[in-house]
Design brief:
The structure holds 2 protein chains of 2 kinds. By secondary structure, chain A is mainly β. Chain A contains no helices and 12 strands. Chain B has one domain: Immunoglobulin-like. The chains are: A mainly beta, B mainly beta.
Chain lengths: 117, 113
């Protein structure tokens, strides 16, 4: 079974600064996917970024980038030039590669990020 | 619609009652997932549909929980004889197919008194 660990329950940072959220995972799989989802108070989970384990290049999406260290089983999220709208819960998630379903996501417990004006 | 929708947004019921939670996936998405999110936790997998069939229901906690997707689109999660421990946010997600990203709805917050 896979596990995902987010060791930072809460973080806060000043607007326009850079912040890094940590995530580690445990798996015996060699091929899988990793995700960061954002959950604002509206409850809707919004995909921030996705990384395929077989790709060495770290994924980026505008101000969001990841540091994927496969050997260390680490997948951190960096948010640059943070904005007030980035305030939310952030969840790291794992999905193993499967030829026939089941493609369930395994989530960490989340990090509550607050951007301070 | 443009995204996954779930109804109702909130549901309050009494212990022992029956409830149904509905999920409308993104049009054309073949895969549909249900997750449960307890307070302060990440979502936990309940059940996965590929088309009309439940491909994996290993996350359903007991036989009081059941889900259907009769026409391969809308899905209903059914909970019988509700218990206070069933109180949580129930999230639905859909994806376009294998290995594709899951897109989530806003969830239904269930409160069992």
């Amino acid at each position: 079974a896979q596990t995902v660990t987010q060791s930072q329950p809460e973080m806060s940072v000043q607007e326009a600064e850079t912040v890094t959220l940590s995530c580690t995972y445990d798996t015996s799989e060699s091929n899988y996917y990793l995700f960061w989802y954002k959950q604002p108070p509206s409850r809707q989970m919004i995909l921030v970024i996705r990384q395929e384990a077989y790709k060495q290049q770290n994924a980026t999406e505008n101000r969001f980038s990841v540091n994927f260290q496969k050997a260390a089983k680490s997948f951190s999220l960096k948010i640059s030039d943070s904005q007030l709208g980035d305030t939310a819960m952030y969840f790291c998630a794992f999905m193993k590669h499967a030829n026939f379903g089941n493609e369930k996501l395994t989530f960490g417990t989340g990090t509550r990020l607050t951007i301070i004006p | 619609g443009a995204g996954v929708s779930q109804t109702p947004s909130n549901k309050v019921t009494e212990k022992g009652k029956y409830v149904e939670l509905r999920c409308d996936p993104i049009s054309g998405h073949t895969a549909l997932y249900w997750y449960r999110q307890s307070l302060g936790q990440g979502p936990e997998f309940l059940i996965y549909f590929q088309g009309t069939g439940a491909a994996d229901d290993s996350g359903l906690p007991n036989d009081r929980f059941f889900a259907v997707r009769p026409e391969g689109s809308v899905s209903t999660l059914k909970i019988q004889r509700t218990e206070r421990g069933d109180s949580a946010v129930y999230l639905c997600a859909s994806s376009a197919g294998l290995q594709e990203t899951q897109y989530f709805g806003p969830g239904t917050r269930l409160l069992v008194l």
